[in-house]
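Reviewers of the previous submission asked for a worked example of the structure-prediction workflow described in the proposal, so we include one complete record here. The input consisted solely of the amino acid sequence. No template or homolog information was supplied to the procedure at any stage.
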Amino acid sequence: MDRNNRKTIRVGSRKSELALIQTKFVIGQLKELHPEIEFEIVSMTTMGDRVLDKPLPKIGEKSLFTKDLEVALLSGTVDFIVHSLKDLPTVMEIGTTIGAVLKRDDPRDALVLREDCNEYQLDSLPSKSFIGTSSLRRTAQLKRKFPNLQVSDVRGNLNTRLKKLDISQSTSDNTNTNYSGIILALAGIQRMGWEKRVSQIIDSDVMLYAVGQGALAVECRLGDDYILEMLEPLHHYETVLQVVAERGFLTRLGGGCSAPVGIRSTVCLTKNAMSLDGAVWSLDGAEELQCSSSAELADKKVIQSHIDQYRSEDGEPPKKCPYKQPRQFVGVTPGKISYLDLDIALKLGTDLAENLITKGALDIMNVAKEIIHSTVK
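From that input alone, the workflow returned the following structure tokens.
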């Protein structure tokens, strides 16, 4: 496709400060590769941004932070969208795909305490202290490991939640929650340049993180070869393997991005292996099922031999080359990444989920869904 036909690329983004920082970062990466192209940001609010008076699971809509942007993508208003990957459902909107997954930042959670509580950590906070979070995953783990603390829902973008923490104070009529601290994704705080606000980085041994947390994803139209080719160099090999395993895990469990499900994944290229830990909790944290697994990645000589089998005499892979077919892995278009390793990562995630299912994971998740639906007004 002639690049001259699209000199300006329109990029969809949420309007929050963090979303715009992330979008500008991706654009900056692309400008280094394509200085001749102009990028225009088209920002908008999503359902998740507009409805702030209800906990996320009770809004009753899927794709809370992505749907409005995807409508713009499919209508041609924008050419691609930058997301926090943890916000993207594992089942993508028909006609869309993830064209790039950038190198993952620290996926762990972080505790941000009110200034007068800053000498504490989770295990030393006074009993009955309020911790704010809108995540069922974080809530369940807090209730299980720190039952002396109280958990309260807090909604809004990063700026809004930090403001609620800073102005938090006791009131005689108990109409406001007196937050001692809130839990946020560490990567978001770091991207905003607010590392000094972090009181405690919560190790993944204490709190498993969300599927895709810490990674940025770029969503585009399926079949838009021009944009897919542009985005492909942004793919980060280890991160793609991690998120394919994690999203495969969540897909098999049938959970959404707000489900009480946690994950941890590692890829060690020196050992040519990856590992995955996953868990499911009841909403009150009383029940927990957790499993771990690992897998050896494909031998690089085997990968190369598979590619060579399909090369033509001039060295170019023909249309039937399995590495160039438009296959997706839980919504991710792999680009030049080996299908052999992606199949291994996907199987690792689905097998781990199957392990939890045999132990009763779906029963726990179904009870959680019933409780949530029964409280939706």
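Residues 48-54, 58-62, 318-324 have pLDDT under 50 and may be disordered. We consider this example representative of the routine output the project will generate in years two and three.
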